[in-house]
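Support request, please re-run this one:
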Amino acid sequence: MKAVLQRVTQARVEIAGQTVGQIGPGLLVLLCAERGDSETQADKLLAKILKLRIFADAAGKMNRSVQDLDGQGACGGLLIVSQFTLAADASGGNRPSFTSAAQPEEGRRLYDYFVAQARAAHPQVETGQFAADMQVHLVNDGPVTIPLQVL
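Re-run finished. Output below.
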């Protein structure tokens, strides 16, 4: 599975002008399931995301995870958005190929699994809608953007 994390001060997802998910400070997680991925990859990726120390501590160093965002036990939000285009391969020309992306049914299953696991492990989880035409609005904090992939 692949993800692109963006540390945000706020983020929201709109579908047809309606907000379907939004967070304050936390992580926007753009998530892609690829062919051959399973729950094992989803679990590893989620564990990495929850523990990744990319938020500033009192000294301004990246020493806090989304789970200890304010340093006093309060956590930040996760906004999880499906994005199969992370599987793009543009090496063969000007039109990207998405053949490494999971088939839609499998992608939805793994996305739903990832979201369910995230909700079980983290108190504030919002989402977009799988396969919808979404508009994602965010204020990237830093900016901090980190690609992750687990095999």
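The chain is about 20% helix and 35% strand. The chain has a mean pLDDT of 95.
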